[in-house]
Design goal:
Order of helices and strands: EHEHEEEHHHHHHEEHEEEEEEEHHHE
CATH class of the largest domain: Alpha Beta
Bound molecules: flavin-adenine dinucleotide
Number of domains: 3
Low-confidence stretches: none
Distance between the termini: 52 Å
CATH topology of the largest domain: Uridine Diphospho-n-acetylenolpyruvylglucosamine Reductase, domain 3
Largest sheet: 5 strands, antiparallel
Structural class: alpha+beta
Shape: globular
Strand content: 25-35%
CATH architecture of the largest domain: 2-Layer Sandwich
Radius of gyration: 19 Å
Length: 288
């Protein structure tokens, strides 16, 4: 199917891109990796006046550790950069585990972390990872820059909290306050598929005590789900068989799975419980 006619611009600066968005408002769409936007346009699910391709804007393809220990990811940081990232291997086990599980190598070569968060597909893996990590989005727009927690940024299926005229320029993971451990487990029907179930787990510990817990679920609700009761069950004491089991049970209760071609609701709920207990028992760890 051919897309409808649209205008295409590839600005060379962020200011120029923001100018286009200001003029065209809701009729304009940002193109990053294009892995979700192009299919939508080709299938005519999205009717768009203007595509603003941000790939020629220099300086957006980074991921780095800031001086305060936080991690930042520019709008053109691609899945493949994260898959091969020594920084993530050293410092962020939940992200390091998730990166090779996003789609297939072709999609990973072009698709971006920030684009994936903006797309807000309930089956997107990065939103769960970023929710578990307390991640944030930095949006730039006519009113300047603002920071939005990913848990607020994802407003519903394919809905994000960007205002008209805004571009998401960066995603951030705050600096940990303790030793970091975590994992991302994903059940897929075949390699490269979207998640039947995905579970992100991110812990910070001080001594043996869990000081922060993040647990979020992919593919088992209308959006990614933060399993807050399961998180709370872990904070303030050492991890043990009982607390792990309780967190698994509470996460399964938080899931809102639907029976579909990927499996029954009951099966998916069971996988959530199994994955949360397994991920808590098999976390990659990084020294504080
Ligand atoms: C075959 C296939 C399999 C896939 N499997 C998976 C999978 O297993 N797991 C998974 O998580 N994802 C999967 N995806 C989605 C993939 O990860 C996409 O890369 C991602 O959803 C979108 O990133 P993108 O950079 O390509 O965004 P684009 O396609 O360029 O944009 C997507 C949407 O976000 C908006 N947008 C993008 N960047 C910005 C920005 N900086 N500011 C404002 N708005 C922006 C666009 O306007 C558009 O509405 C798959 C995609 C395909 C085609």
């Amino acid at each position: 199917m051919y897309p409808s006619r649209f205008r295409y611009e590839a600005p060379r600066s962020l200011d120029e891109a923001l100018d286009f968005l200001r003029v065209y408002g809701d009729e304009a769409k940002v193109l990053a990796g294009g892995q979700s936007l192009i299919p939508l346009i080709k299938l005519r699910f999205a009717s768009i006046e203007l595509v603003v391709d941000i790939n020629n804007i220099p300086g957006l393809d980074y991921h780095r550790q800031e001086s305060d220990g936080s991690l930042s990811f520019g709008a053109l940081c691609r899945h493949v950069d994260l898959e091969h990232s020594e920084l993530l291997r050293r410092s962020q086990p939940t992200m390091a585990a998730a990166a090779p599980l996003i789609a297939d190598p072709i999609v990973r070569n072009r698709g971006t972390l920030v684009g994936s968060l903006c797309h807000a597909d309930p089956q997107g893996d990065w939103a769960s990872v970023m929710m578990a990590l307390g991640g944030e989005i930095i949006a730039a727009g006519p009113g300047g820059r603002r920071t939005i927690p990913v848990s607020d940024f994802i407003m519903g299926p394919f809905q994000n909290a960007l205002r008209p005229g805004e571009i998401a320029v960066e995603a951030r993971v705050p600096a940990p306050k303790g030793a970091v451990s975590g994992n991302y487990l994903k059940l897929e029907r075949r390699v490269g598929d979207f998640a039947t179930v995905g579970v992100a787990v991110a812990l910070e510990t001080s001594g043996s005590t869990v000081s922060r817990a993040g647990i979020a679920l992919t593919g088992v609700g209308p959006s990614n789900i933060q399993a807050t009761a399961a998180e709370q069950a872990l904070v303030g004491s050492a991890l043990n068989a009982n607390s792990i089991q309780q967190a698994g049970r509470l996460a399964a209760e938080a899931a809102q799975p639907k029976t579909d071609h990927r499996g029954s609701a009951e099966y998916k709920r069971h996988v959530v419980e199994t994955f949360v207990t397994r991920a808590l028992g098999s976390r990659g760890a990084v020294a504080a």
